[in-house]
User: Fold this.
Amino acid sequence: MPKVKTNRVRYPEGWELIEPTLNELQAKMREAENDPNDNKRKCEALWPVFKIAHQKSRYIFDLYYRRKEISKELYEFCLDQGYADRNLIAKWKKPGYERLCCLRCMQPRDHNFQTTCVCRVPKHLREEKVIECVHCGCRGCASGD
Amino acid sequence: MAHRLLRDAEADGWERSDFPIICESCLGDSPYVRMTKADYDKECKICTRPFTVFRWRPGRDARYKKSEICQTCSKLKNVCQVCLLDLEYGLPVQVRDTALSINSNDAIPKSDVNREYFAEEHDRRARAGIDYESSYGKVRPNDTILKLQRTTPYYKRNRAHVCSFYVRGQCTRGLECPYRHEMPVTGELSQQNIKDRYYGVNDPVAMKLLNKAGEMPSLEPPEDENIRTLYVGGLDARITEQDLRDHFYAHGEIESIKMVLQRACAFVAYTTREGAEKAAEELANKLVIKGLRLKLLWGRPQAPKPESEISDEARQQAAVAHSGLLPRAVISQQQNQPLQPPGTHDQPPAMPYFNIPPQPQQERAFYPSMDPQRMGALVPSQDGASSGPSGSGDNRSGPEKQHQGQHYAYPGGPPPPQGQFYQQYYPPYGYMPPPPPPYQQYPPYPASMVPPPPSTGTNHQHPPPYQSRVPPPPTGTDQSAYQHRAPPGSNQQHHPPYQSGVPTPSPSAPPPATGEQHHARVPSASGEQAGTSQQMPSSETDQQS
Assistant:
């Protein structure tokens, strides 16, 4: 048999500090994926997945850009390994999208009349105050509130 | 068949359109509407052919609505694509067809291939511009349909549907639930079928509407031959005197039109009684000016404006009194003051308006202790005006009539023959009696205390309860009360509002009567004068039943 080359994962330094949190988040994600969605709506069953994905990305984004506690190498490593969503973080760097919930809510192509999801509308401009957006269950991700 | 794939958009006959055929209510109250258009999105609920579905939200608090039937089907019956009600009148198909005597049901096949063929043929002809027999534009609206039609859009049907989880108690969405958290209205009207509604067959809403139409009351001319004025209610600032003139001139010569804008009403007076009757007959339920449905009733011969304030006030207070909110002592004092000034002249002051719904039958617990005057409070006497006409009739009424304030319960002192006299003045019970003074003279209640001679049916309703209630209270106090009542009373002044209100609607009279009979029974059962008082209720029931 030809030699099969596998890439072994080499963890950069500083990994041990963030590993436990990331493992916890991974476990939560697995739980969300596997939970029996009995009394939930079809779309509602997917909401925890989006929520935890946001949470994971947020953790890494905060560590690198806000608290500056990890190195660039470690940050890139996390992004490559899939512990955070690169595209979502790219949006968070833009003004007005600092709290974006997920990438679908912002995409006008995905909506009727080429608008964004209702969760992007600030609360003081909305008519209904309590909403849960249908994609990710977000209750409002405008930067103001 | 509609269930094959679309090969050729032009020839296949699947329907495409640019804008839906919908009614105002379904389009909504907002001037900003965004509509999505989806070609061949769904099949028509009637003919099952694919058609262009439009979807929009008719207003802020509305659910999303979409077209349910195709344009061919909607043109065949001249109905809205969403709600399947007539485009012009807003009525179900069955109602419109029976009212206008149209019957096109035979021409439209209802089964499978026949139906599709018919629909396609029709569609082809319409597109080619061949004028098919659309009878809807040519039919003249007749009376019935004018009475039944909807004049303003009805947006309540655009509300969200009822949350079925809430009905079971399981709605976990809480505040963000877009469905209505109310209990659903069940009943015969909830079992509706779209095909039945479309073909106009076996539609429960239509049957209900037709039954109601059959029973709509017609405007009865009043007994008093002098009344030539019609009251028009529900006015708006947009309606001018000229509009009224245009509508009313056709039936007779108009003597005068008086508009009372602050009360949103107008009075149209004709020179002849026949003109007024003709107008009432023709316009009774069909008066619609500038899209506003107006109410038409017979008017009163008195000038409305000065009395209106008084009667309004009196009525309001009467209403409050009757709902038992204020103690009678307070009310009697309140009513004494405003009623004093009008009482000074001979005109009977309070003419209630017909548009104000008649006072509900007042249950007066006629105990002497409830009336301060019975208990001996002195009220300044009224002038001799009230005592004047008393000479014309009833002696026993002498002391009583001159009461001011209110006596609701009279001791059953007056002997029957004099009571009969009273009754004679009563016939114009809900209307202005021709001689104003007797009106002043007769507080209704004392008269009604008397056992009712079989003179007028309407009077029956009132007398029984009072009679039976009055005997139980000891007559001793009655005599003393009489003596206290030497000062003339102006209570009759507020009575007129009640009077006309109460007996006029004949349908409402029987139910209160039965209610009062119950009341009548109770005191009579407990009263010590059981013998006499019981005889009276039984005699009343004989007469009444």
User: Anything to note?
Assistant: Residues 21 and 59 of chain A are 9 Å apart (CA to CA). Chain A has a mean pLDDT of 93.
